[in-house]
Amino acid sequence: MAKSPSDIALVDVVPPAAASTNGDAAPIPMPTNDDAAPRATGPTAAAGGAPAAADGDPGSATAPAGADEPSAAAANAGNGAPGAGRPAPGKRPQPAPAQKAGAAVLAMKPQQASPGDSPVHEVGARRKQFIIAARAGANLNPMAVDMLHSQLDHLPDVKVVRRVRPSVVGTFGLGGGVAGDMIVAETTAERGLELQATAGPGLIVEENRELTHLALSPLDTAAAASAQPVTDSIRLQVTDDARQPLPRAQVILYGRNWPAQGETAGDGTASVDIRGGTAQSIQYMYVKPFANDWERWVTDPDLADGSINAVTLRPLASFDDAGFTPNAPFVGWGQRQMGLTTQTTLDGAGARIGIIDSGCDNQHPALTHVQKGLDYTNKDQNDDPDAQSWTTDQLGHGTHCAGVITGNGQNGIRGFAPKAEVHVLKLFPGGFFDDLSRGLKYAIDNKLDVVNCSLGSPEPSDAVRQWMNLARQAGVVVVVAAGNSAPDPVQFPANAPEALAVGAVGMQNTFPPDTYHAQTVPQGTVAVNGIFPARFSCAGPEVRIAGPGVAVISSVPGGGYAAWDGTSMAAPHITGLIALLAAHHPDFADRSAPRNAARVDRLISLAMGSAMPLGLDARQVGAGLPSLVTAMSPAMARPAAAAATPGASPADVNRIISLVMAQLAAQGAVPGQRPGA
Questions:
Q1: Does position 203 have pLDDT exceeding 50, yes or no?
Q2: What is the pLDDT of residue 121?
């Protein structure tokens, strides 16, 4: 049985400290991704128990695979009942405050607390989860994983959490019908190391690690200061150009050796505590609004002690070159560069798309047609993902990706494939390798054409790679963001051969110069036709193609829009293009054609073959930025099969068969007769 939220202990999470600098000149801090961490569970979890249920088969069109009907309370959780608390069209969204990332805190009660108070939890070492899976090509007995499951159930300090396995055993021929069959077990770190040490070559035993989304965010660098007392406090108020307060704006102040952060309240104010420094120690100020305005980046900000420091942000529509008009159909600069316009007739009808992310606010006016999904962060007592709560997107990340992929273009963003069937698979916050595997299983079972994975981990997973391979064999293109931690190498799963890894590019003059977007231009880079490789984008031979990933304006929860950076923003452009090719390219007109690896390779070939050469390092941009117009051109179509020979008749066919039979007889082989008979 899956653990309920009350079983999981929350402790203070201290993000990694920001890198210190020497000398007078401090480099501009670039956001990086958090290290992957093993999934944590309660240290007192019971061992053994009934075997965990495996993922179910796909459900109905209304409730996808493995979903139970949620209670009324669950259906109304998060964003609330449809329309509740949402602004009228054109009004600024006022989202409810969210818990800050990296700040989960357990409120400890004294031992003498009354019986009605929350129970006291003694903090100790966390138990970990490990994935145990059959390795592809190991030729294990199909019952091997069943026997292993039974053995693990009888170990006193091991609890089997779940099992994930292909719905159709042996279909893909990758190891005797057991490839992809995986067990997730919770145990101590010591027992996990023992399992790894004793596993034979036919088994994978690895930690179940947490994934991160790949939107460039100030929270990625907002590390806690060292343990020093508060030496100063900076008060700020963030407003728009009409002097209206902007709640939920993130404010980060970067000192020489530390950053400090805060979030504005309903009146637009925030107080940021400085430890071990003063207002004069601050080198950079970054203010990121929740929606509808441009962010602000200030070098050597002039901040006053004892006063409220006013920060005024400009609306997105104020910068004409960005092409954003509120309450009107629009496409972003990247979509335009790839050949998409508001007049494009291709709409993705017939394609099936998966978005593996943080959910999707389908009350957003541009996304009301998105109606299918599962929430793998919210499981019932049978470990089945909830079929309703995927519409709650605490991070906004999945909603932003969805706008680029499938925005309906009705008084808002026009995505690549507004008529496609979209399946939202929520993994964040708190998604792990096994959740990603379950998402890929869902994509296989529901015959999706392409899945968008704007996520990553510094650590690889052989078990996830096997599911990526199963997806490829089933005809599913897996599009993955390359990562935002340059100069680090391409992250997993983008570095897997089965992935279509996407790097990020930006375009000059599509953002104001006083934003952090301007800091993503690599120093000394010569842009080609205005296109430049994003400074943060991970590079390597695994990058196969590029997508727009700087100052991408798209939908966010609550009905608004925001300009974000990241390879997370680049990948949805490629996912949308793949969906249009699957729906409209003549090579895929036969809907009864096999769904296999050749289909995946052809879709990727069309996308890469249409790419415009950018004159940039292929390690950063791969084949370049693809073009929808080129990909759909007749020149890119596969040559038609050769017609039958003119004048061929049944007599001609019989003559050929006779010749073949004569050749076989001459070699001593008679069809239908066993050798030696």
A1: yes
A2: 86
Give how far Cα 36 sits from Cα of 124, 452, 492, Å. 20, 20, 11
| pLDDT at 320 > cutoff 60 | yes
Which among 461, 485, 568, 610 is annotated as catalytic?
568
For residue 24, give Cα distances in angstroms to 27, 232, 253.
10, 22, 18
Of 522, 537, 535, 524, whose CA–CA distance to 480 is shortest? 537
Report whether 396 contacts 557 (CB < 8 A): yes
Average pLDDT over residues 240-258: 91
Q: Sign of dihedral through CA atoms 41, 42, 46, 47?
A: positive
C-alpha to C-alpha distance for 411 and 661, rounded to whole angstroms: 69
Q: Per residue in 255-265, pLDDT tens? A: 876 789 999 99
Q: At what angle do helices 567-584 and 397-406 cross, to 10 degrees?
A: 30
Rounded to 10 deg, the angle between the 597-609 and 462-473 helix axes is 90
Active site residue 357: yes
Active site residue 397: yes
pLDDT of 173 > 90? The answer is: no
Q: Between residues 182 and 117, which one has the greater pLDDT? A: 182
Radius of gyration, alpha carbons of the chain: 27
Q: What is the pTM of this model?
A: 0.78
Candidate list 357, 434, 435, 449, residue with the active-site label: 357
Active-site residue, selected from the candidate residues 364, 397, 423, 573:
397
